[in-house]
């Protein structure tokens, strides 16, 4: 079935109140739903009430206390249609269903994970619990009573505030929760189990004391302390940055080990993948810490952007997701180094969203149609959605942006809103018209800007000519020109910023050029010397830039741009150009040529003690194999890409071996481990140096020594990576792997690093490694984290191993996807997107990949999730 944005219609009935009673049993849980149903004004009594279901078993049905006759309704596992309705416009409907949480392997609805009952209802999981108007524009006030075994489930949680708890005999007890805030069904949550917890409290600006708790597996309580700290910082930050306060007496977080996504923002009861809660120095890397901080913040921020104001329908998903990602980005930027955070965001966007935009799965930030909504929780909706919000701030400036946000909250609190509502708030706050800008929500694809420059020494003018273009994407052939905000600077030969006397031809506000037409030229006057332009500072728009800037100017920018993002962009452009030239030479049977200038430049930046170590680490880390492939765009031979990259690594490593070794020693950890950004930056730089030094030295000794000397997971995992990726067959690699397994073999979440580390070992041998690891006792295709750590990492982060020229890895992947699809379609569909760029491979691999996709397309009993992805991928 195809769902279309333009088909939206409000429901005939509303459900202002929902009372749920859960009698929890592992295999037979009874759910009694008592709904206050309201017929909307003007709706005829002959209109049936049609409720959504999914694999439900109806036990009984009554209206206003009287059981419904068999002729009064029609029930199937996925639909309940009631025709025998009372005349009153308001009545009570009682539905009893029976469900089996243990058998629920899709991890949608109510399921059991390691003995803990938990729920995931977004997007359409609530209908797997009871029949309901399971759509985001039906808001209801929930009261939930949970009855369960005292021994199996001492902890009983749901949304809102706790009302009552009590005893029900030898091994049963109950708890009642009430959430006063009307919410859509996708925000419902229940957790019941035997869990450990840590607690704390936060007092809001206006004096509400909120009890905070994080629930984890027994024995892991200490590993939740960092998440708690991040939560309190998030609560404070949302008050300071957006004036948003928390609105219940309690806020609970639960970590579970089987979870399809990162986490879920259920009102007052966030449920998390344990990966985004648990951390300590022993088991978590710096990037794990950063991920926890970001996801804790993200889910908390949803309380206002998502929960208080929710989405009218799922086409508006970016209304809550893009905006909330933007908010969590800003939070992390304020907690850490803004420039380093921004570069990390740009890298993520380019790595995940750009390929989506250029491939067969391209869709607008607000899609117009879908077959399976679960397949639209994408980098486009989330990350590009965030970039669009960032552009609104760039265009309006921070004050008007905040004014627009305030207006949005004021107007739509308690409502299910649309993108139009969101844009209107900014238009009204700023007195601006944003209809052209709104195309960012409608047109898929990454715009390309071609830019050329002209300095007129006699007239003292500097002109920049822009041409924007946007390629066709599925379902959209012709595109309109967009409003692209381009942050810029003009840099004089002395490295200082030049302030032009005037700008003609295009709108320029402060340091932003507003590109609106297909072709436009801006002419700056009063420019005494030929400047070097820095465009797209801060990565002010999600576009690609093809500029005519000469190499010397890029080198100049890499050295002197006052914007660190600009410096990094210039360096990356230079490195990418060099790497692509190397790929071409390798494919022609020649060795890559490596110029001394670029090698020197990298060494210079790394040695610059005035720069943040984290920034230097980013500069030292060459574009990855998939970055190079993406920039090449077509006819990719991953082996040649790796050869080119390795050659540049080696040249840099050999040229700077001495200073790199000294810096490596100087950066050694002193004192106790701290996950703060500055310490993490030093570790990042040191671990990047470790890779280069190991290459220069040509042996695994240094990495082995670091592995065994490390007192934290960041350094340990980095050393293990170098050993496995650079010295795969060596005894040192085997010894470190064995030591890791001996130490962390009892902890699957930590062992995920061990699985991914091996799955990403370059070269054809990785496939056998992955097959072996699938038989490991800790591995299970049923657990999403395990599957992603091994299969996901292999397919997305091992270019040479996955894209074997003989196509064997694709065949293995296909079979594995089909196996996963039988249990967990959402996970299978997500993993399958690893093949979305198959058309850009060289012909032999391309044909193997196509054949593998065809195998999936022709398999029987495909889920709608996988069917949708495979059909769109094949096009
Ligand atoms: N709203 C969640 C978040 O971004 C993601 C939930 C996605 N769930 C799903 N079944 N697709 O925080
Ligand atoms: Zn979200």
TrEMBL record:
Residues annotated as domain Peptidase M1 alanyl aminopeptidase Ig-like fold: 445-546
Domain Aminopeptidase N-like N-terminal intervals: 86-187
An annotated Gene Ontology molecular function: alanyl aminopeptidase activity
Assigned EC number: 3.4.11.2
Pfam family membership, one: DUF3458_C
Domain Peptidase M1 membrane alanine aminopeptidase: 226-437
Keywords from the named record: Aminopeptidase, Hydrolase, Metal-binding, Metalloprotease, Protease, Zinc
BP GO terms, sorted: proteolysis
Family annotation (SUPFAM superfamilies): Leukotriene A4 hydrolase N-terminal domain, Metalloproteases ('zincins'), catalytic domain
Cofactor(s) this protein cannot do without: Zn(2+)
Chemical reaction(s) catalysed: Release of an N-terminal amino acid, Xaa-|-Yaa- from a peptide, amide or arylamide. Xaa is preferably Ala, but may be most amino acids including Pro (slow action). When a terminal hydrophobic residue is followed by a prolyl residue, the two may be released as an intact Xaa-Pro dipeptide
InterPro entries cross-referenced by the UniProt entry: Aminopeptidase_N-like_N, Aminopeptidase_N-like_N_sf, PepN_Ig-like_sf, Peptidase_M1, Peptidase_M1_dom, Peptidase_M1_pepN, Peptidase_M1_pepN_C, Peptidase_M1_pepN_C_sf
Domain Peptidase M1 alanyl aminopeptidase C-terminal positions: 552-874
Coiled coil: none
Main EC class the enzyme belongs to: hydrolase
Primary role: Aminopeptidase N is involved in the degradation of intracellular peptides generated by protein breakdown during normal growth as well as in response to nutrient starvation.
Family: Belongs to the peptidase M1 family.
Protein known as: Aminopeptidase N
Lineage: Bacteria, Pseudomonadati, Pseudomonadota, Alphaproteobacteria, Hyphomicrobiales
């Amino acid at each position: 079935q195809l769902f279309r944005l333009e088909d939206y219609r409000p429901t005939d009935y509303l459900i202002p109140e929902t009372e749920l009673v859960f009698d929890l049993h592992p295999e037979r849980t009874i759910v009694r739903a008592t709904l206050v149903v309201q017929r909307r004004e003007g709706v005829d009594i002959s209109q049936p009430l049609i409720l959504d279901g999914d694999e439900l078993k109806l036990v009984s049905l009554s209206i206003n206390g009287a059981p419904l006759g068999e002729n009064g309704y029609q029930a199937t596992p996925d639909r309940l249609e009631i025709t025998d309705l009372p005349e009153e416009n308001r009545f009570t409907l009682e539905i009893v269903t029976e469900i089996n949480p243990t058998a629920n392997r899709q991890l949608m609805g109510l399921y059991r994970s390691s003995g803990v009952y938990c729920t995931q209802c977004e997007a359409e999981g609530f209908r797997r619990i009871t029949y309901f108007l399971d759509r985001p524009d039906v808001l209801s006030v929930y009261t939930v009573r949970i009855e369960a075994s005292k021994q199996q489930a001492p902890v009983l949680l749901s949304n809102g505030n706790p009302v009552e708890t009590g005893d029900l005999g030898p091994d049963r007890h109950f708890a009642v929760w009430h959430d006063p805030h009307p919410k859509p069904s996708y925000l419902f949550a229940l957790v019941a189990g035997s869990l450990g917890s840590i607690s704390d409290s936060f007092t809001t600006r206006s004096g509400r004391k909120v009890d905070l708790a994080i629930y984890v597996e027994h024995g892991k309580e200490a590993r939740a302390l960092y998440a708690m700290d991040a939560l309190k910082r998030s609560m404070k930050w949302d008050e300071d940055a957006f004036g948003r306060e928390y609105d219940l007496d309690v806020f609970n977080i639960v970590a579970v080990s089987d979870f399809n996504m990162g986490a879920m923002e259920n009102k007052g009861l966030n449920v998390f993948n344990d990966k985004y809660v648990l951390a300590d120095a022993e088991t978590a890397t710096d990037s794990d810490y950063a991920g926890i901080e970001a996801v804790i913040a993200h889910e908390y921020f949803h309380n206002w952007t998502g929960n208080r104001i929710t989405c009218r329908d799922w086409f508006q998903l970016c209304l809550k997701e893009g905006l909330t990602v933007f908010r969590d980005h800003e939070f992390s930027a304020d907690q850490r180094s803004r420039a380093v955070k921004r570069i990390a965001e740009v890298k993520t966007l380019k790595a995940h969203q750009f390929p989506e935009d250029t491939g067969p799965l391209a869709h607008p930030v607000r899609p117009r149609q879908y077959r399976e909504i679960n397949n639209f929780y994408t980098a486009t909706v989330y990350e590009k959605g965030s970039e669009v919000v960032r552009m609104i701030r760039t265009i309006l400036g921070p004050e008007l942006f905040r004014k627009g946000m305030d207006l949005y909250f004021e107007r739509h609190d308690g409502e299910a809103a649309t993108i139009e509502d969101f844009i209107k708030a900014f238009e009204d706050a700023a007195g601006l018209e944003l209809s052209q800008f709104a195309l960012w929500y409608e047109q898929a694809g990454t715009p390309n800007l071609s830019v050329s420059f002209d300095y007129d020494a006699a007239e003292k003018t500097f002109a920049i000519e822009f041409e924007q273009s946007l390629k066709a994407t599925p379902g959209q052939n012709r595109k309109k020109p967009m409003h692209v905000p381009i942050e810029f600077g003009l840099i004089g030969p002395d490295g200082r910023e030049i302030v032009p006397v005037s700008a003609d031809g295009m709108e320029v506000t402060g340091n932003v050029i507003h590109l609106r037409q297909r072709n436009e030229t801006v002419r700056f006057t009063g420019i005494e010397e030929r400047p070097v332009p820095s465009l797209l500072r801060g990565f002010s728009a999600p576009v690609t830039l093809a500029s005519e800037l000469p190499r010397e100017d890029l080198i100049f920018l890499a050295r002197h741009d006052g914007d660190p993002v600009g410096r990094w962009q210039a360096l990356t452009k230079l490195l990418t150009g060099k790497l692509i030239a190397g790929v071409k030479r390798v494919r022609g049977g020649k060795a890559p040529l490596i110029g001394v200038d670029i090698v020197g430049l990298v060494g210079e930046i790394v040695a610059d003690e005035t720069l943040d170590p984290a920034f230097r680490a980013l500069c030292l880390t060459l574009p990855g194999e998939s970055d190079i492939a993406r920039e090449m765009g077509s006819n990719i031979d991953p082996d040649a890409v790796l050869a080119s990259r390795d050659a540049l690594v080696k040249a840099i490593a050999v040229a700077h071996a001495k200073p790199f070794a000294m810096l490596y020693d100087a950066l050694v950890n002193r004192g106790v481990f701290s996950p703060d950004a500055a310490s993490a930056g030093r570790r990042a730089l040191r671990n990047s140096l470790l890779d280069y030094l190991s290459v220069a030295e040509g042996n695994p000794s240094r990495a082995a020594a670091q592995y065994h000397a490390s007192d934290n997971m960041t350094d340990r995992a980095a050393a293990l990576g170098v050993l496995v990726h650079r010295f795969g067959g060596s005894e040192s690699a085997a010894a470190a792997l064995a030591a890791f397994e001996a130490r962390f073999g009892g902890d699957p979440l930590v062992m995920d690093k061990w699985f991914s580390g091996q799955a990403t070992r370059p070269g054809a041998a990785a496939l056998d490694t992955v097959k072996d690891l699938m038989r490991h006792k800790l591995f299970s295709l049923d657990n999403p984290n395990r599957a992603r750590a091994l299969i996901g990492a292999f397919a997305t982060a091992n270019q040479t191993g996955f894209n074997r020229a003989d196509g064997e890895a694709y065949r293995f992947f296909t079979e594995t996807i089909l196996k996963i699809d039988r249990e967990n379609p959402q996970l299978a569909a997500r993993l399958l997107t690893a093949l979305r760029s198959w058309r850009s491979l060289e012909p032999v691999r391309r044909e193997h990949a196509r054949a593998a996709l065809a195998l999936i397309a022709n398999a029987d009993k495909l889920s709608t999730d996988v069917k949708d992805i495979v059909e769109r991928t094949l096009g």
